[in-house]
Amino acid sequence: MIQLLRVCIVSCYVLFSFAFANDLALNHALKQQSVTQIISAIELHYLDRAIADKVVADLSSDYLNSASSPKETIPQFIRQLNKDLLKSSGDGYLTVNFKESIFIGKGFDNHVLDKKNEGVSEAKYLSNHIGYLKLGSLKPSDNVRQALDSALTSLSQSKALILDLRHLEEADIEQVQYLLSYFLPRDTTLATFSNPKDNMMFTAKTSDDISGERFDSSVAIYILSSPFLEQGAELLAYSLQRQGRAVVVGKPTMGVAIWRKKITISDSFILEVPFAKAMLPESNDNWEGNGIDPDVDADVEQSLELAHQLARSYLNK
Q1: Do residues 231 and 308 both lie within one domain?
Q2: Taking CA atoms, which of 19, 76, 129, 313 is between 20 and 30 Å from 143?
Q3: What is the predicted pLDDT for the residue at 169?
Q4: Closest to 284 (Cα-Cα) out of 185, 189, 163
Q5: Residue where one domain finishes, among candidates 103, 132, 163
Q6: Same domain, 71 and 163
Q7: Is residue 211 left, alpha or beta, with left meaning phi > 0 and alpha meaning psi from -120 to 50?
Q8: What is the pTM of this model?
Q9: Separation of alpha carbons 234 and 256, rounded Å
Q10: Are 207 and 251 contained in the same domain?
């Protein structure tokens, strides 16, 4: 169901972009170059060797073994390529999208595709000793980490803290580890990431390497969740929930425990390649397809108000 949803989103994105890019013709050389790079990336990174070999063989046969190809625009190429990738792999996470830069000068507002509210979107006290931290994205950036340090230091007097993840678009695993280190003991195992193809394994843990003070375990934490949270955002919510450090308020999350690399292709496209699977330490399982269930079910729009009520009740005990 989750992968079907991703396929629908990718299809809608391509259809949306078609209106702005229908004059962007794709020449044969660029097409061959792009497919060659896609094949190399899949061979190198895709987490299942058997599927990777099948996709590589199918792409080579369909795209590289012909001397010419019919005229088509870039959107037409991407739509067909995504159909072929899905048919060959059965994996809705393996996709190709536009790179925003190809629209510059083509009558397309490039800012439509910009990431908004990177790092900390808002940090404040809602009421006496109830802190509120809203996250926009947790990209692998020193600026994001500095923003987290500043925000959490400003909220260090909180006796209850609301973490608003409802619009968290991207959550890099190292940034998630860093943020969780403010709330969980040192060396707490969060998840193990594996790539069976390369026999690769990485264990994500909390550390003492934080610039501020760790929040005391008496600080009540409330996490606002939404159906659009995936990957690192889900790990963030679930780690605090399963350690008994947070109450999750909102709706079940998307249920994506497969990590993907974003790889630039021919300076025109972005290939997303599944490369690792997260596994939980206590169960050797994950939340793929199921998501993280909230402790308190609430409409996304009402979850902040409800969490605030819960925090006030906690402090008034």
Answers
A1: yes
A2: 129
A3: 85
A4: 189
A5: 103
A6: no
A7: alpha
A8: 0.83
A9: 8
A10: yes
